[in-house]
Each structure stands twice: as structure tokens, then as C-alpha cells.
Amino acid sequence: MTITEVVQMQGHLIDSGMLSRALDDILGAGADYEIQNLLFGKTKNDESTARIYISHPDQTAMNDLLVRLQNHGVNPVETSDAELVPAPMDGVFPEGFHSSTNFETFVRLDGQWISVQNPEMDCGLVLRDGGVTTVPMSDVEAGEPVVIGFLGVKVVVPPPPRPASESIFEFMNSVVSSEKPQALQVRQIADQMRDCKAAGKRILWVGGPAIVHTGGSPALSALVEAGYVDVLFGGNALATHDIEANMYGTSLGIDLSKGSGVEHGHENHIRAINRVRAHGTIAAAVEAGVITGGLMHALVKADKPFVLVGSVRDDGPLPDVYADVIEGQRAMRAELKDVGFAIMVATMLHAIATGNILPASVPLVCVDINPSTVTKLADRGSAQAQGVVTDIGLFLEQLAFELVGRTS
Amino acid sequence: MTITEVVQMQGHLIDSGMLSRALDDILGAGADYEIQNLLFGKTKNDESTARIYISHPDQTAMNDLLVRLQNHGVNPVETSDAELVPAPMDGVFPEGFHSSTNFETFVRLDGQWISVQNPEMDCGLVLRDGGVTTVPMSDVEAGEPVVIGFLGVKVVVPPPPRPASESIFEFMNSVVSSEKPQALQVRQIADQMRDCKAAGKRILWVGGPAIVHTGGSPALSALVEAGYVDVLFGGNALATHDIEANMYGTSLGIDLSKGSGVEHGHENHIRAINRVRAHGTIAAAVEAGVITGGLMHALVKADKPFVLVGSVRDDGPLPDVYADVIEGQRAMRAELKDVGFAIMVATMLHAIATGNILPASVPLVCVDINPSTVTKLADRGSAQAQGVVTDIGLFLEQLAFELVGRTS
Amino acid sequence: MTITEVVQMQGHLIDSGMLSRALDDILGAGADYEIQNLLFGKTKNDESTARIYISHPDQTAMNDLLVRLQNHGVNPVETSDAELVPAPMDGVFPEGFHSSTNFETFVRLDGQWISVQNPEMDCGLVLRDGGVTTVPMSDVEAGEPVVIGFLGVKVVVPPPPRPASESIFEFMNSVVSSEKPQALQVRQIADQMRDCKAAGKRILWVGGPAIVHTGGSPALSALVEAGYVDVLFGGNALATHDIEANMYGTSLGIDLSKGSGVEHGHENHIRAINRVRAHGTIAAAVEAGVITGGLMHALVKADKPFVLVGSVRDDGPLPDVYADVIEGQRAMRAELKDVGFAIMVATMLHAIATGNILPASVPLVCVDINPSTVTKLADRGSAQAQGVVTDIGLFLEQLAFELVGRTS
Amino acid sequence: MTITEVVQMQGHLIDSGMLSRALDDILGAGADYEIQNLLFGKTKNDESTARIYISHPDQTAMNDLLVRLQNHGVNPVETSDAELVPAPMDGVFPEGFHSSTNFETFVRLDGQWISVQNPEMDCGLVLRDGGVTTVPMSDVEAGEPVVIGFLGVKVVVPPPPRPASESIFEFMNSVVSSEKPQALQVRQIADQMRDCKAAGKRILWVGGPAIVHTGGSPALSALVEAGYVDVLFGGNALATHDIEANMYGTSLGIDLSKGSGVEHGHENHIRAINRVRAHGTIAAAVEAGVITGGLMHALVKADKPFVLVGSVRDDGPLPDVYADVIEGQRAMRAELKDVGFAIMVATMLHAIATGNILPASVPLVCVDINPSTVTKLADRGSAQAQGVVTDIGLFLEQLAFELVGRTS
Lengths: 408, 408, 408, 408
Hints:
The structure is a homotetramer.
Chain A: E1 3-11, H1 18-28, E2 32-39, E3 48-56, H2 59-71, E4 75-76, E5 83-86, E6 104-109, E7 112-117, E8 124-128, E9 131-135, E10 145-148, E11 153-156, H3 182-198, E12 202-207, H4 210-213, H5 217-225, E13 231-234, H6 236-248, E14 250-251, E15 254-255, H7 268-279, H8 282-287, H9 295-301, E16 306-308, H10 325-333, E17 339-345, H11 349-357, E18 364-368, H12 371-379, E19 385-389, H13 392-404
Parallel strand pairs in A: 7-9, 12-13, 12-17, 13-16, 17-18, 18-19
Antiparallel strand pairs in A: 1-3, 1-4, 2-3, 5-10, 6-7, 6-11, 8-9, 14-15
Helix pairs in contact in A: 3-13, 5-9, 5-13, 6-7
């Protein structure tokens, strides 16, 4: 069975984005649409009108969709008087009550559209004192007539403010949030990685030193061994703290097995760098048995390339690090061939640097505990960036668990 | 003089938002448009095509606009072969060079559209080895032919990923940023407040205790006296620290004139509350001369209403504070009449509470040093919220300077 | 075998905290100490001197400790000329090189203490041009004499700036960081919970709605069933989104099994509240089969108490929620009996509220993805608060895995 | 007149930091002290005891100090029975009531020390049901006896948890906060700068591009002209956006005079770089009249040196930028001579890089809207760093106003 409905909308549908949002809602709900009629305003002063034919196999989902569309100012063409049901108890609305928006709203009673007083979100629409008014749930009285469903209700949404010379404020359409089911996100990234490998493409990782500080290094090393890291970009700090952890069991002076230590006064990292410099390259230090485990060791053993590019705050640096950042960019570009998926973990500097040189056609996931890293990346042109705000150590452990089984 | 140009675009123009973004770019550049032809895809699988006639009085601005549109996949209808100019020096492009995007790009040479290799942002398009390739500025060699301008260049922008069941990641269209010219924002808020008063409407302030901690209380008090605060919503903390500052010169135990002190061990705030409770109301304490200055004093003296609603973390509370939050909501609703502008400063809890009950038709500015307060407000339905990320104390000082002259 | 060493220090040892930091370093390194001589300055203008006898079973650890102490201005009593070893290669220091601090430093050569030029962190001390100077690793030349170890080196640490009337800046001794090995932290919290239960004490949880949004609800419900949640404090939002997730599969309108949906336009939460209000209490709704799973269901079924206290931004609220916050505080106090461990997850408001009423003797862990929640809690007097900055959903999953085996 | 008092303390006074905190409190209150007796525990298992003689000219300040000390477990030697005063009204304590801590507390009645039930912060100590119990302000009843002042009260503070192998959690002693009176901080930084210049020393600035984005460039340029910027360290972005702003009136594509524009699609910055590269150096571009204003122009005109060091994410870069970061470090070191004050504004990368090479003896202020920049700097060894969390544009405007009069 297929449920169908026709809705209409009017206003600055195209330049305000209303129409594309409505279609987005429709597709997001699993429905199909056909635009039956679109009279578009030719100039910025002309309004447009649209009629959209919607179909969905499920009545409940269709109702939910119609409510959502109505809340965005898209109202059914065929309507009727609003249905009123008395509140069953003080402080309780009848089931199926219309939950209000904070936009201008009208309710049809006896064929007349009545304006709702005091538009307020998440209230009921109650017939009171001869009019229709928003009433918060806690204030409704038993027996008061309350509007049910979406029929006989019309919501008028004004166009969003356009960024013009008289307004400097931006509109916030969406944000990167830590309030997402992260376990689910991990599974989906694992799927993307499997798909990339199945397509014969390479996976590019870009990483910062928090991978080591948060204890994520064993998990990432396991992913190297299992073939999910084809090339790694990073800086001096990532490799240094990884090697420090292997040589001394610490990262920035913190004992990784106990979590205790002091933030500074440490010097293990500078000793680690010195020792590797004496061998000439990280690979040589691995071969000499000076580095016996960790991420860099795993990369060398698996014969996977890495590009480390320095920054002005570096100590040392390690011998493999490009001190010349322009040469470093060239080395990074040379490793982009056949990259089919990129993941950036706990680094803003190298993430933006990689975003700068990566074609927009490569899917890109950015993982950080700080939402601003993700948004900065997108702001700087990597519009395809997908953000995950989560804990790095736990994220890598879960990802390794999904892809290669538990590792720690 | 009016410069005109016709551009075309093809793809999922409406449901991807491409068309509305293009119109936004056009209006944002100060140009006018007329949609000449829009063949819209009726279903989600159909592509749309559009031709847009653009006019602008200024040639340079028109060129800038055409470049921007091209970067978004909107290309001129009339084009020609690309113009090539040799690089004047090693590492320098010719003036007017085409700055590349990371999207699939084509360059027309001898009537043929050639695909650009290695799409990368902010490079030049250089004729090299018989093809056209992106070259970073530092790598171009003197004499190499470089594409100039937008003619003969075509950028193909894929539709943005649609949030569908197989993808859980959100797209980031824009963010609230602290990297804005704040002095300008202050001036524009001052204008909105003047307009609100000129229209005979009331200005609603919602504030948190950081107003006091950051030294912004004198500036806000000056705004009360000058008539720019018609009603204030807040909690126990704002009023308590304001009164503490007046009685003891401290806020949370910090000496406001010296900035020194300790965070806890203080107890001035609880003594301040006790003293006001003994008088029964804040107004009574003002009348009794127990409170001699500060924000609450200014409100009482100017006979401006305030609604203080408590929270579970409150000490005391002050006698005017609603301990019952539902009664507090009712008191807030009762003060919304004729509010024509709302400004929320340094409070997430009361900002969201006010957003919940405010009609969408009331312009609303949210000021906080933490961007997440602003985005949370918009997420919770107050889509009209405009965000300003800045320092509270300095913001209030500048606003008072704009509206009533320097106050401190 | 026991290694012993005598160190000395001089200056404002007590009021600057130098002495306590030194003893902290000693104990932190697993060493023992005996203060042999402490001449304390009686007034703020008098310097103190101390000699400390240190013993440790391990020579390497002792050397590390002595280096650390020296970096903090605590120098060995017995010293000698500095040992110099030539750099083995350009850009490489000899093994065991002294890694410099940015404090004033002296090196003893031929019995004379020579001042080191250009104090800079993480450099070598190199004999060059007749003096001793800091040289960065990359600038040392093969054959240059480099100081080894700590003998013959003296570091003079100035007292830290005291917060006085002429300075308003705070000193930062330590911070809450997300850069910690989180898996380890989870295990240690699991141990604390087991110890609490073994001691016959109760575990108090304080939670925010991000528990539900991040998919952590099944894990926490498993902990309820296993007896690791004796009482829960929270607000309307936690219970509402938990019940919404059970009734509709969404949280704030987001489909928890797919991660997709829209932030607003949803109304499931308000319908969920309405339905529970019709039953009178959450427990009644559970008994009536209206709530069939989730955290609140688990608490009701396990007969564990919860206290929900409202806030001014609440919709509804749920019938169990205290609208009067002072009554809510009383209800919370009444549940503190025999609490031996408290954990606060993803809530600032209720965490601070609980911190306000909790004796300092109850260990308290605060878990949040935002470091400022943890620091605010400590600032407001809950000095015993231990902070974990991590992802809520993954944290709860890992904790449940540790305590009751994997749950999702 | 001088008020004197003798207090005593017992416990792990030195290694827990209790003694240094107490002396800190005493000096912070403007009092003098003399340690009369200090029996120090020689080993980590021994307790220490101390008696401290305190003097202060002001009785009220002395009382406040004694209350604060008592809250930290430092109790007067001479005491008496607690004084009890009946509560004057329901919900109101008598003036001077003892405000409780959440530590174990005793009250002396009839010569006996009675343990206080339910230690809780910010309550009164009330004689009820034959014992002494904490009572929240809202719950006290008229006539109930309430403890006044600090005599007859003893607070026992346990040692703070020491970071040992079984605990990985850090203690938070203090934090960098945006909740400070910023106008005051600006004035104090202005004083430090004047003092530095008066002493014939140089002021070092380290800056990030947000100086330009936030509209702070004119203010900083005015400071250059007035002689308060002797040398500037930064990266490619700061200089590029400054020059872009001068050439095109935009910063990252944002029109600085209107605040509107789009985040990407812009290419003014890359054109600005290209134009300067064609002239060979920034100074040459200034001399050629290609750069006519802004920060870099002001530096060139005032003949002040700057060191720009590149990073891997740079476009271009500008011709003056060091692409080799190790050479860049050397150039920075060469400019440290005679620096007497350093200020770092809106940059984490270059701030840490500068902190790495700066002697600890140079006072250093770090200004950022993001608190984590400041704490990261201190974590990495620049313990002298003083943090100011504020808006960059407003900060620079206020600082210029203090030092050279209003500039915009």
C-alpha cells in the first residue's frame, strides 16, 4: 500500500533554502516526491509557490513527516477543520495532540483560520476564552479542547535572515556534536574502510600525538598490521612520543601503564629523538633493534610509507622529519595516488594541511575530542569532511575491535 | 552601466541546495538575478538545469562573483578557450591567475575541454607535459603557461552527501566563530537596540553571573539607566554575585578591583543572600540602603521588572527567586509582551529557557565566550538566534560606549 | 641495595611550594626521604634552606629523580666538575647528555661555576667559544664537548610569582586533559566501584541526557542490573530522553539505531512526557507496560531510587520531577546516606548541585567530554573531584565491559 | 594598631602543600606571619605540626583571614566555646553566622568538641536535636541556635590525594578562566609594557591571524607606531591576512568593514601572496606602494624586525617566510636579545615555539579566547605564562586605548 499526500508551500522557496530543506525532510523520512508545480520567482523580490506530491508506504511515518513539514511551513493542500479532543486530566494533553512551534500558526475552526496567540514551542493548541492559544502541558486543565494532529493547522515560517550588508550574523544550520551514538559511528567508519580496501584503494591516516597520549597506539598498530593503514601523515610529535613510549614507557613524561607522572621536567622525548638521530633514520633504528614496538615500528615492519613534516615548535627533530615544509607538502602530494579514504585523528595542523592538497572526491573523516578541529577543516574548504567528536584512545580501540578483534 | 552575464548549472540543484547557495552568492555580492530557465527534476532521481541571468553595476565585483560561482560549479554559458599567460618568475603566477578548487575541473584549449590533473585548492592551472595540472605557487617555473581568469574553465561540483541511512555524519554548513570583527558586531547590536526602542518595543535581557565576574556590571547598569534594559531574566547567581559585589567588592570571592583572591573559601555570596533574605525582597534591601549600587539596584531604581528563576545548584536562594521552576516559567511568559529584541549574555540555562518560550518573530542575539552556548540554543529550536562569541566584560563596555558613552 | 643521595635547596621553600613539590617528586618516583635539616624562614622575607636525604633501590630511577629535582632547582650536595663528552656526529648529542631547562643554570668546570648562556629548554649544554651555552640538537657539531648527567650542573629556580595585589594572573599548576590513556582510567574507576560495593557502601550516579544521546543507556542499564547504581540524581531531560528512546527509538529526534534525523522539528520527547504524566509516575508507566526498557525502566525494576530535579528550561515536566528546586535539594540530601562513591556523567548543573551537598570525604569522579565541566566542579569547592575527559557513550560501554562484560 | 592571632595546624603539612597554601592565604590577605614552631615530619610517614603568629592592621580583614584559614584546616590556638545566636526569622541566619565547609567539623559547646553531622558547604551550624548539624539557609527556623564566627569551631582537612601509582587522576589546583574582570587585566598588561620600555628592554609579540579576522589589526598597528612592538614572531597566515586586508579589504574572504562574506570560495589571500612574491619581500612591496597599510606595513615603516616561520598547511608562502622550520627557530633565537616582556596573541603553534626558546626569566602573557591554548603553553614548560582568556579584537582595542588612546 502507498499513502499519498499533496503539500504546498509559498515564499522565497529557493533562495531561502526552504524548498531544498523540505525535499531533504521528505527523502530523510524514506518517502518519494514528485514536484507537481513549481512557479519560481524570477527575481529576488518574487515569491515562489510549489506543490509536492509525496508518497510513502507507511501511514505512521507519513504522519510524522507531515507534522515535520508543517513545522517547517509546508502545509497539506487538502485540509479540514481542526479536530479537538478534551484534555483527559489536569496537566495532560490527549494522545496525538498537536505540538506547537514558535512560528505564526493558524487553526481552522468552522471553516475560519484563527490566529494562535503567543506562539511558543512544545505546547498544546487549546481553545480557551473564545480563541486558540498555546498552553504549556503543566497548565492545561481537564476538559479543555486541544487540537489533535496536523489537519486544520497551518504554520507560516518566515524566510531565514539572509546574510546581507545590514546583518553580519551567520545562520547556524548544523553543528558537529559529541552527542551522537559513537559506537554506531565507529561501525560505519569500519565499513567505509573495508569498502575502500575492497575497491583496491589505499587508506590515508593523518595523526597527532594524542594517539599515543590516550593509549591508542596499540590499536592503531594492530590496524597497520591488518592492512588498514596504507600511508601515514604526521609531524615530529606523533613519531617522537610513539618512540618515547616504546623506549621509556612514557609519553610526554607520563607513564602509560600507570597514568601517573608529571607534565614537564621529563626529557625522555628528547633522548628518544637523539638516539634515533644517531641511527640516521627511524627505519634504521627499527632494524638496529633500538625501536622494538609501537606505531612507527609497525609501519616500518609492514613496509608502509609515512611522511612526517616538521613545525616551528619541534624539538630535535627526528631524522625523517621534513624541516622544510614546502618540501614536506611535495612529499605528501606524492603519496596521494590511489587514496580512496582519508581519516584524520587528533591533529588540526596536519589535518588542514592534508585537506589543502586532497581532491574533494576522497571521502574524509575527521576524529577529534575538540569539535572546533572538525569545523575548522570544513571552513577551510574540505567540505566533504565528516566529523566525529569522541575520545581518541577509546575510538581507536573500538575501531580495531570492529576491524581486527580486540587488541588490548 | 550594468554588466550582465548568463550562467548555467546542472544536477540535483534543488534538493542539494546548490541553487539556493548560488542565489545566495549572487545576492551577497550585491548583484541581481533573473532565473531564465529552470527545468526541475520532478523526482529525487531527476536532475535539474537552470540558467540564471545576472546583472551588476561593477565589472570587478561581477568578475569576483563569477569566479565564486564557478568554484561552486556554476559556469558561464558563453565561454571561450582559456587564456594562458606565462609565469613571470619562478614561484610567481601571472596577475589574474585562476586559483583552483579541489573539485573536478576542465580547461578549454583549442575548443576541447581538457580534464585537470590532481585537483587541489589554491593552486594555479598550468599547461605542463601536454596536459593541464594544478601546480602550487612555489613550484611554478618562469615561463610556464598559466590559466588566467574564469573563461574556458569549468568546475563540476558533486552533490553534497545527503544524510541518509547509510551515513550518519552531518554536513557542516557554517559555524559560530570567535574570528569576527567584534567591534563591528557591537555597533550593529547597538543599532538593533535603538531601532527596537524607536519602534516602541521592549528590550529583554537574559544574563548569567559572568556579567559580574568579568566586570561588566557597571556597563550594564548604565544601560539600565539609559533605558536599554526593559526586563531582565536570570537566576539566583547573577543577582547574588551582583549584590555580593556591591556589599563586599568581591564576586565569587574575587576582589573585582584587583582581580586577586581565591576561588573558594569565600563566603561573601552566602552572607549577601542572608542579608537580603532578612529584608524580604531585593527591592526592600535597596530601599533600606543595604544594596547601594550594581545591576539589581539599577533595575529597582529604574522600576524595571526582573524574573529570577532558581536551579538545583542554588545556595540560599535570594527571596525574589522562584524556587518552583514551572511558576518561574509562567512569570517569564508574563513579561514577554511587547518584547521586540532579546539579548542573552553569558548564560546557557536561562538562554535556552527563554528561547523555549519566545516567539520566533523576536530577533535574538546570544553573546558568550563559548561558541557551544550559541549553537545549543539554535539546535533547540531558536533558529533566529544570532551568535556573538566574545568576552562578556569587554562586550558590555563597548556596547555601553556605543549607546551611552564610556562608563568605566 | 639502596642508593642514597643528599640534595639541598634554598629560597622561599615553604610559601612558594618548592619544598612540597620536591617531596612530591621524591615520593612520586618511589623513593623515600628524610628531611635532615630545615632552617625555615620565619617571616615572608626570610629564605629557608633544606637538606634532604633520599634513598631508592634502583640506580636508574634515582638518576632520573635527581635530574628532575635539579630541573626544579634542587641540586645534589656532593658534586664535582661536570663531565664532558664529545658529540658523536653533527646533530647528535652523546648518550646521557644533560637536557637543559629554561632557568638560570651553572656548570662546574675546573672547580668554577660557569653561568650558562641563553637558558633554553631541551637543549644540550655545550662548551663553545670558551663558555657554556645551550645548543639545540640540530646545531651541535661533531666533536663539541657536551655536558653529561647532572653532576656539576646547578639550576636556580626563581620563586613562582605570588598572586599579590600587583598581579592578577593565576598560576596554572595542572589541568584536566583529554590526553590521558582512557582505557586505564576506566579500569581504575571499575576498581573503585568494586571496592565501594565490597565495603557495603552505595554508589551514587549523577547523569545528564548525553548518556542517552551518545548511546550509553544500554551500558548504564546493565550496570543498574548488576548492582553498580544504588541511586541516581538527574533532571527532566535525562529521564525524558531515556523514555523517548524506549517509546520511539529516538533521542531528541535522532534515530539511535541509525544516527540520522533532524535536531528539531521532533516532538517525540514531549509526547513521551505526556504519556507518562497520564500514568502519574514513571514507576506506574513501567508497571503499565508503557515503558518497556531503558535506564528508568531498569531503575524501577531493580527498585533503586532516583531523584529528578527540574530546571527552568524543562518541557513538561515528567511527573516525578521536583519542580521546586529547594525541595529537590532536600530529596537529594535524603539519599546521601551510606554513599561511598559518586560518579557524575555528562551534566554540569546536577554535578555542581550534588557537589554542593556532598561531604568532601566521598570520592567523586566527574566524566565529561568538556574539560570545563570538571574544572568548574572543583572551582566550586568539590576539591576531591577527579576528572576524566572522554566520550560518554564509549566510556559507559567500556565501564560496563569491565564490570559486567560487554553489553552491546 | 596591629591585630595578632596564633593558629596551629597538624598533618602532612609540607608534602601535601597545606603549609604553603596557608602562608599564601596569609600573605594574600595582606597579613604578616612568623612561623613560631615547626616540627617537621622527617619521613613521608611522619606528621608535622606548625604554629604561626599572624598580624594584620585591620580587624575585619583578620577575621576574614581566620575564617578562610579555618576552612583550610588551620585553627586558632586560643579558642572558646562556640557562640550561638538564634535565627532571627525562618530561612534567615543571624549576621556573622559560621558558613560551613564540606570537611569534617567540630563545634565546642560546654568545653566539649561535638562532631557536626552531614558536612555540607555553605550551610549554617545549627544546634538541633541535641547535636550540631549543617542546615541550609532555607531550612533554618526562627529561634534555632546558630553558630557565629570562627571561635569554637575546628575544621579538619584531610591531605589531598597524592598522585601515586594507584591513582591516575590529577588534582586541579587552579584554572585559566574567562570569568575575570578583563578591563583590569588590560590595564595591568599596559603597565607591564610601560615598565619594560622604561627599563630599556624590548617587547616581543607573537601573533596569529585572528588578530586580523577580529579586526584588531589597526590597534596593533598603532602599538607598533607608538613603540610597543619591538619584534614580531608569527607565521604565513598572520602576514598574509594582514596584507589581504590591506589589498582587498577582506580577511579569509570576509569583508572587514561589513562582517559579511563567505568562508571559502575566496581567493584574495592567494592573490595577495602572489603579488608580494613578485616583489621579492614584504618590505619591497611596501616600498613599491603595493602594501599601503596594516600591521606588516607598520612594522616595515617603523623598521621593526619580524620573523615569519612557515607550517605545513601554508599556501604560497610569502617570500619572507622561513620554509625551513629549524632555520626559522634560529632566526627567532637571534631576536631574543634584550627582550624584557613577551605577549602571545591568538596563536598556539608560534606561542609554544616561542615558549620553547624563551628563558623562564622573561615575563610572558598569553592571550586567547580559548583557555586550552594558555594551559598547553604552561604544560609544555613555560611555567611563567600568565593567561588572559578574552576576545582578541576587543583586547587589542582596549590595550591600544590604554597605551596610545583610542585608535578606531
